[in-house]
Amino acid sequence: MSAKRSKAVERLIETALQAQKRAYCPYSRYPVGAAVLTETGRVFAGCNVENASYGLAMCAERVAIYHAIAGGHDAIKAVCVVGAAARPCGACRQVMFEFSSKDTALYLVDLHPATGRRSVLKTTVFKLLPMAFDPLASGLLPKNPRNLLKRKPSRRGRRRPAARHRRK
Ligand code: THU
Asked: What is the pLDDT of residue 149?
């Protein structure tokens, strides 16, 4: 598409374009494709998956991110979203933020359904979600939230923070 983009980013965009074709969206008829490039150089795809019970629909971005997490890669270098007007919803912005750094790039590919013409907008996850909910980094989270429930703390129950917080 553009000579200015790296091979890894071109592969990311191509993966999202292919994933859009696999969207399951018989209710909205609005196919979305997404792809995540991890800091380890892996690419994971996602598409929106809807359900007859409408509220169960899952956005393409979250499918791609959860795919990466399930594959053991929780540090995101770039995300690509493809749609007729690709703009991640608020919920997806918060989920992207959880696994992003300040430099995590976001490529928004608007694909005109009739003409096939596309435009690519580059931004960052942090720009799209200023003042994100980030209790781990801000120290707002109680050291051991289980204390609030007056239960004995369990080591097994403690979750591992995402890469963004581990790097500090
Ligand atoms: N959708 C996404 O996959 N990503 C977004 O960021 C916005 C919306 C999906 C959800 C639903 O299947 C369809 O688009 C219409 O809202």
From this structure: 62
